[in-house]
Amino acid sequence: MAVLEAGQIRQDIPCTVTDHKAELGFDLRFHAGFDVTVPLRELAGNGEILTVIFRVYPREAPLHVAYFVQHFNVPAIEDDAKGDATLQGGIDLGEGSYHVDWLMRDRADHLCSSTWDLDADLPPKDKPMPLFITANQVTESIPQPFVNDVAASDSKPTDDNLTVKLLVNFAPQEAYSAALQRTDTDALVSILKTIQRDPRVAHVSLVAFNIDEGRIVYRQEMASRIDFQALGKALQTMKLGTINLQHLEQKHSDSDFLENLITSEVGAATHPDAVIFAGPKAMLSADVPQDSLRRIGDIDCPVFYMNYALDPRAVPWKDSISHAIRTFKGTEYTISRPRDLWFSTSEMVNRIVRHKRERALATAVGGGAH
Questions:
Q1: Which spans in the chain are helix H?
Q2: In sequence order, what DSSP letters do the residues of 232-299 get, joined into one string?
Q3: What is the H or E stretch that residue 72 is in?
Q4: What are the distances in angstroms from CA 309 to CA 160, 217, 255, 363?
Q5: Residue 112 to residue 36: CA distance in whole angstroms
Q6: pLDDT tens-digit series, residues 85-124
Q7: Cβ(319)–Cβ(307) under 8 Å?
Q8: What is the DSSP string of 227-241?
Q9: CA dihedral 352, 208, 186, 349 (to 10 degrees)
Q10: What is the average per-residue pLDDT within 308-319?
């Protein structure tokens, strides 16, 4: 505490501390952190334990302090070892201005310390966007995104009581990647959470699928909120980067899967207030034939596609899901940045509400005329 309070730079252990500026992630939380670099020769020996202790507080509320601790087990290192060891840490923040006091010590109580300020600010044009973490709040980084959304219970329901069906292609941005990257899962889960958090959305159903595997990975029937823990567990069964021999025998197995999925889910006898597709671009061997989709006929709810594309210029043309929703006069949104997610969701839900009210009005007028 004396070292933290002093706010001095100590280098009993020679180190270089580099702080990371706060950046807004797709999970709608600001992320900040640090790298600390130590020459390996300074850690030579049969094993060491380095302890990092730091505190963070809003500059306008210095009594609201959050403390963090990390332990790093250092393996045996030769006396003449070359190079550096780099250790990292991170935290999540709400909007605000913060101060950080940081130190690292070894078992002999040798110290390395640093201090810095950081700001987590939304640009003025993004101020209407509510984050998934409150202003001046400091928390540990969430180790994985599949955490049930407690904050959703705080929203006040409205009279709109929307029901939406979500069809999400859980796939990596890189088509041939053997794993979902954290940025991919953060973005796709955040799309689901942003929709669920809108107070006008009362119930959601979810179909999580993977076109490359040609299967539905997880299904949840209509409920007030999504079970993200169950979804995360189901996604662990995916085997990306492998080839199904049965699919190789079919000329367009990926397109056939998408066609069957749309036929069964969009062409169901009863419809929610909206059907929403989400996922990265699905560039299939062939698009689903429009004639096959037209057989579904008119559906009495709007269809949307939230296309997650970190770099839209890398693949500028439309994908197979985009081509498919044209049949239903669907609307597509490109999600490249966190702000795209919020503003697209707001516009989409507004359109769903408007369509539902117009349909109710037409029904009431038609019933009265009859």
A1: 2-6, 182-197, 228-235, 245-249, 253-265, 290-294, 320-325, 338-369
A2: HHHHTT--TT---HHHHHSTTHHHHHHHHHHHHHTT-SS--SEEEEEES----SSPPPHHHHHTT---
A3: strand 66-74
A4: 31, 22, 20, 39
A5: 10
A6: 999 999 999 999 999 999 999 988 899 999 999 999 999 9
A7: yes
A8: -HHHHHHHHTT--TT
A9: 0
A10: 89
Question: Helix, strand, or coil here: 186?
Answer: helix
Judged against a pLDDT cut of 90, whether residue 308 lies above it is answered with yes
Three-state DSSP class for residue 131: coil
What pLDDT is stored for residue 156 in this prediction?
A: 57
- Exposure letters 151-165 (e unless 16+ CB within 10 A, then b): ebeeeeeeebebbbb
What is the residue whose two structure tokens read 């640009």? 123
Query: Could you tell me the pTM of the whole model?
Result: 0.85
Tokens of 250: 């079919």
Measured at the CA of 309, the angle between CA 308 and CA 312, to 5 degrees, comes to 145
Name the one residue in this structure whose structure tokens are 């509400």: 353
